[in-house]
Amino acid sequence: MADDMDERFGWAWDLISADPARRDAAHLRLDGLRMARAAAVTRQEYEEASRRLLPDGLWTGSWPGLARVPRAVRYRLLYLDWEMRFPHEWAWHAKSWRTKTSLLRTFHQHVDELSGWIRTVLTDLVLLAVDRPHRLGDERYARLARVLADDALRDRLRELGEHADEGVRLRAGYLTWVVGTRGLPEPKPSQWREYLMRQGLTEQPAERHLPILSQVDGGRVPILVRCPRCAGQAEVACATPPGPDRAAWRVPCSHCPHTATRRPEFKQGNRWDGSAVYDPVFRLPLWLQQPCAGRRLWAYGTGHLEAIEQHLRARVRLADGGAYLPAYQVELPDWMMPLERRDELLAGIAALRATVPATA
Fold first, then answer.
1. Per-residue three-class SS string for 168-217
2. Max CA distance (Å), the chain
3. What is the rounded CA–CA span in Å between residue 237 and residue 241?
4. Count of CB atoms within 10 A of residue 111's CB?
5. Which of 111, 203, 246, 334 could form a disulfide with 38 if both were Cys (CB 3.0 to 4.6 A apart)?
6. Residue 342's closest CA among 23, 39, 92, 54?
7. Could you read off the pLDDT of 61-96 as tens digits, one per residue?
8. What domain of life (predicted)?
């Protein structure tokens, strides 16, 4: 029920504390809750553990409407505030772009139900979004600005329009344009580009790194496997680029005459449940895999392994806003999240890397 939100999430206010030690303690608690869910045996245990996790538990027992469940609203706002103030910590511990956009959409759709204090908090979040570089889903704050607009918000946007930082000035100018121009469609990324063109500017596209599974699926990442003939290291690669016909994949072995070619209709993934893992095309055992922390640590190739290591090392605080762009985007399983396992996992990664010849 929504009435037990304080009991489930009262500790979560430390996630936005100015004290790093309090935030660390909250992160460790969140890690422990995630581990409890990973260890769940029955469906009931899994659902109960999910009720206590962020962001999963934010939706439990809190419908219909916003006005009837003020406690649920407080923690939904907390989740958005956490992403705004400490985006790297949010991304590491409880990232969910879908939840972020769903929450903002819900507030937008139910704006007539919102009490004064909720509108004030949302207005503050809109202004914080102006004061930082754009992140995925932030166009939803522009939509909120249109329905929350009052004289105070317009005055604050005008002040930010004179900010020393050009990015802040541009974002404030964009919101002022969105709020003050009737007949504009709902804000979306293309509208931001249109605004920049009106200013004689063009958006510099940010460098994007596809998730590792997308890289593997497209054949852009070599996959290290164990040769079925000599048990030596072989490499699965896409011999032809994707096109109207199914791409051809090859697995030549550099240690024996074995070679194979396949044009797969579909590719199979792997699980993080401790079972053996295989490449998605030929279903050969991955070279980079070994037991670790009671589970199985594995990677498709050296690039994937490097990305996992970067994510683990990024467990240290990034609250100063330092950039963090791994070679690939990697979603880590729950059992890798606890801080006390980091050293064991890094040692496992070093052991796996040592099995790869320098030329691989």
1. HHHHHHHHHHHHHCCCCCCCCHHHHHHHHHHCCCCCCCCCCCCEHHHHHH
2. 76
3. 11
4. 17
5. 334
6. 92
7. 444 455 456 678 899 999 999 999 988 788 878 888
8. Bacteria
